[in-house]
């Protein structure tokens, strides 16, 4: 068994003539927090979409915990223990906070027809258990929200929605969490608070690995163990934040060449 | 179709507003069903409009809503008793009972469409075709001597489900408008098929045998308190009970993980897939169970009117069913009851409207979508066990 939880081997994705991801190889160690950074359009979200099975890869392969999960369906990837948040919030706005979080707990819910329509006692038991669990998870992010579990998410401000989205991802106790620009649309302080909360949850469980896509370099510097930098679909640098920040090619990619 | 009304958690409400609503609706329906003169009907419609406005602007409506969610089970039972009471008071009147039962069966059909359309977001423009499939099944099996009529009802549902199975593959493979077009095509094909098929009576249609339960022949007029009741009385009572049973299951489905997954699939397929929800399973389950209900409703409808023809199950009838769901509120089972009453009773009661019924419904649907996009009785946020500690 290798030490890496996730491995991209020569991953390539082409959309027609555009090569969004070009021969991208990288790995993620167990328990690591990896920052995936790069200018807009450099292939960060695309790699998330390939990893979670939303897009098929044009070439290369993805290994999760030693198993080839290239082009597996989103469901299989979720069952393997990979969950994500989205760049643009993808919550179900008319549904309650509790409902939205339960969408993330599919693997544990009993979804048989008889179990749901006839065995209401057993259903109720599971409902009550999951309610408490969801509520205590939400409470780590915001005590205020924990008392409003039955209110629709659509009525909440952006920061609260992002918290719910992260709770939805964490409720199934995943092994790998993919965060796609968690700071988008939030203030500096809000982002800071959110990161603290995520680290808190991570510290309680065992060995949650995180890949974070982020433009806010303060966040990357603060929480990542290691960074991978993409530009035009290619990996141009890898190393600690200080190392990649000092890299000449990275500076060119972000700031342009004088 | 966007936001769902928020229940402001306040002090627990009593059952009184709910009971008064049931009483009012029961007396109102009774009056509407026996009203014959145009001015009486107009007056009753004006009264309904006044009550709705009053309910919206004085907060009475919210009181009823709160009362209902606090005491849902007894009040639902109360509603059933209310319907049965209306049926009993009208027991010797053919036409009002026929109207009432038709409303109940359209309400039942709307429950099926609601699972497909309201919960899962699969528009079904072939509702009348599946309803008709149930009715034709009843006609065919009803003529088989040894086949128990109660099973005929189930068979109607199963045949509609089996036809749905044929459609499910193209529907699951397409989304949105394209899936809707698939159902339109099927609805049109189905009617054409009936018209050319000699075994099923062609354009002339078929006779349907009446419903029979052991010791209860629906063709006989029962005697109640020394008075001979209409034979429609049988169907009205049976339909009311059937609707109550299926309503309970639809509610359970909504308030279970299955219903949650249906909502998730409707609102965001990509996100649902990323959290392990099987899109195909959810859609197939929704489509087939919706069809099962449509078929059962159609089978009983066929047995009641005892004669069916392809012209009873046209594309416009399908549109009518979809407009019931839209009018009542997507995903709102009770909304379907109100909308079914409007759609079935209004043109029958106001003869002058008969010719213009489709125009009327088109205008009505547009008005509702413009001014009350969530329907007449918008769906409430999912509460798995209403009446229990709210929000725990």
From TrEMBL, chain A:
A Pfam entry, by short name: ABC_tran
Record CDD domains: ABC_Mj1267_LivG_branched (cd03219)
One GO MF term attached to the UniProt entry: L-phenylalanine transmembrane transporter activity
Domain ABC transporter: 6-257
GO biological process: D-alanine transmembrane transport; L-alanine transport; L-isoleucine import across plasma membrane; L-valine import across plasma membrane
PROSITE patterns the record matches: ABC_TRANSPORTER_2
Keyword list, A-Z: ATP-binding, Nucleotide-binding, Transport
Keyword Coiled coil among record annotations: no
Gene Ontology CC: one annotated term: plasma membrane
PANTHER family: AMINO ACID ABC TRANSPORTER ATP-BINDING PROTEIN (PTHR45772:SF7), CONSERVED COMPONENT OF ABC TRANSPORTER FOR NATURAL AMINO ACIDS-RELATED (PTHR45772)
Name listed for the protein in its UniProt record: Amino acid/amide ABC transporter ATP-binding protein 1, HAAT family
Organism expressing this protein natively: Roseibium suaedae
Lineage, opening ranks: Bacteria, Pseudomonadati, Pseudomonadota, Alphaproteobacteria, Hyphomicrobiales
From TrEMBL, chain B:
Alphabetized GO MF terms: branched-chain amino acid transmembrane transporter activity
Coiled coil: none
GO cellular component: plasma membrane
Transmembrane stretches, start-end: 15-35, 41-62, 74-91, 97-115, 122-144, 150-169, 176-194, 231-250, 285-308, 320-346, 358-377
Membrane topology listed for this record: Multi-pass membrane protein
Subcellular location: Cell membrane
Major subcellular site: membrane
PANTHER family: HIGH-AFFINITY BRANCHED-CHAIN AMINO ACID TRANSPORT PROTEIN BRAE (PTHR30482:SF10), HIGH-AFFINITY BRANCHED-CHAIN AMINO ACID TRANSPORT SYSTEM PERMEASE (PTHR30482)
Protein name, as recorded: Amino acid/amide ABC transporter membrane protein 2, HAAT family
